[in-house]
Design a protein that fits this description.
The chain is of the alpha/beta class. It folds into two domains: about 210 residues, 3-Layer(aba) Sandwich (Rossmann fold), CATH 3.40.50; about 180 residues, 3-Layer(aba) Sandwich (Rossmann fold), CATH 3.40.50. The chain contains 15 helices and 14 strands. The strands form two sheets. An eight-stranded mixed sheet has the order 3-4-2-1-5-6-7-8, with helices on both faces. α8 links the parallel β9 and β10.
């Protein structure tokens, strides 16, 4: 089969590690031809071009700046993406007949690209639903259903419905995502919906004690503390002010150390807190290269997930997989609508608390300190192999496409 994958994630090589690279590589390993359309932002000063890797062709499409730019410029760039992708696919993939189009959210604005290729090639279409927009923006107060922002909301809501309508199948990250789509989109045929969890090709990031010591010394992390690590985006969805409240609640706890690694629009709040309060049991670092980050996570004791308690949509952060791969248990501080915390507790590899309850966080930390974290981490690793392995995701996609 000829597979076209559309994404706003900047894929540089199909042999890198990540939920999308790993999935596309699984298609390659099963003798499919993979074509990827991915953006390359104007700030990188690179024209539209194709990178070939065996049976994979990566079409890097020059777009406006989508990250690290003003809200207005990002908005303009986002609106132009559809025409840029469509033009590039017409030019570079005009002689390729696609059997299957796979695309992920965000964004929802590639509907016209999907529609064009689907009609041209009579292709099957499969949406990987990683983000429910625009409702997530409403939850965080970025958009509103009334006033001027309401007009923007209605435009994007229409785009969302069009994308669902175009999709032959919709792969949701969890059962809570399926339930949400059913409840809020009555026009969507339930038979379209299936569960395709975030998945990776599991690697062995287990570190023996002596290597953990080396990693902790390298990054000046205490050897005699229980180290809680958070890695990933630090923006509005993570509710950084709540993270700071949690850190403050532990400022006198001499048994623990908190490592926060990442960047994003709210990262500066953590820097300001660190500079002002100078907590001795907290370290804040900018994002690291993936291999360094994975090794460092494996030298820690507990991974953390944070989601704003205002979310009504069930997010399911892929960061969970890094912790499971590293064989460390997970503390999930989330809203009550996601089922990621339930999956963690039911799987016996971590704890959950609501992300507006600092006291619950304190209790979870206390329990984590006293628990056999090695055994819990091993359970998480086994569940990763059984449920979140990329070959499981691949088989699910292929089985529903063949129906």
């Amino acid at each position: 089969m000829n597979i076209l994958f559309l994404t706003m994630y900047n894929i540089k090589s199909v042999y890198s590690s990540g939920i999308y690279e790993d999935l596309m590589r699984e298609f390659l390993n099963n003798n499919h031809n993979v074509y990827i359309a991915t953006p390359v932002e104007k700030r990188f000063r690179e024209d539209t071009n194709i990178v070939e890797e065996n049976n994979c062709k990566i079409l890097k499409i020059k777009t406006g700046n989508l990250q690290k730019t003003s809200f207005i410029k990002k908005g303009i760039s986002t609106f132009r993406i559809t025409s840029q992708f469509k033009f590039a696919i017409k030019k570079y993939f005009r002689n390729v007949k696609f059997d299957l189009i796979i695309y992920s959210t965000p964004p929802i604005t590639l509907d016209k690209v999907v529609e064009y290729v689907k009609k041209r090639d009579n292709a099957k279409t499969f949406l990987l639903l990683k983000d429910i927009f625009p409702q997530n923006a409403v939850d965080l107060g970025i958009l509103s259903k009334k006033g001027l922002k309401g007009i923007i909301y209605k435009y994007f809501r229409k785009k969302e419905k069009q994308l669902y309508s175009l999709s032959d199948k919709i792969g949701c990250m969890s059962q809570a995502n399926v339930d949400y789509i059913v409840e809020h989109n009555s026009e969507v045929d339930k038979s379209k919906l299936t569960i395709v969890p975030n998945s990776i090709e599991p690697k062995n990031f287990f570190l023996p004690t002596n290597e953990k010591v080396v990693m902790r010394k390298k990054y000046d992390i205490p050897l005699d503390k229980v180290v809680f690590v958070y890695g990933g985006n630090l923006g509005k969805p993570q509710d950084v002010p709540f993270i700071i409240k949690c850190l403050k609640s532990q400022i006198k706890n001499e048994e623990v150390f908190f490592l926060i690694v990442g960047d994003g629009t709210e990262y500066h709040l953590l820097e300001e807190y660190f500079e002002k309060d100078k907590p001795k049991n907290v370290k804040v670092m900018k994002r690291l290269p993936k291999e360094d980050f994975d090794a460092m996570v494996a030298s820690c004791d507990v991974g953390m997930i944070f989601l704003d308690h205002r979310f009504t949509i069930p997010n399911y952060p892929s960061r969970l997989l890094s912790y499971m791969q590293a064989r460390i248990p997970v503390l999930a501080c989330t809203d009550k609508n996601t089922d990621i915390g339930d999956d963690i507790e039911n799987g016996g590899f971590g704890w959950k608390c609501e992300s507006n309850d600092v006291n619950s966080f304190v209790k979870s930390v206390t329990v984590a300190i006293q628990t056999d974290k090695v055994d819990m981490g091993q359970r998480g690793r086994q569940i990763l192999i059984e449920r979140f392995n990329v070959n499981v995701g691949y088989k699910t996609i292929m089985s529903v496409v063949r129906e």
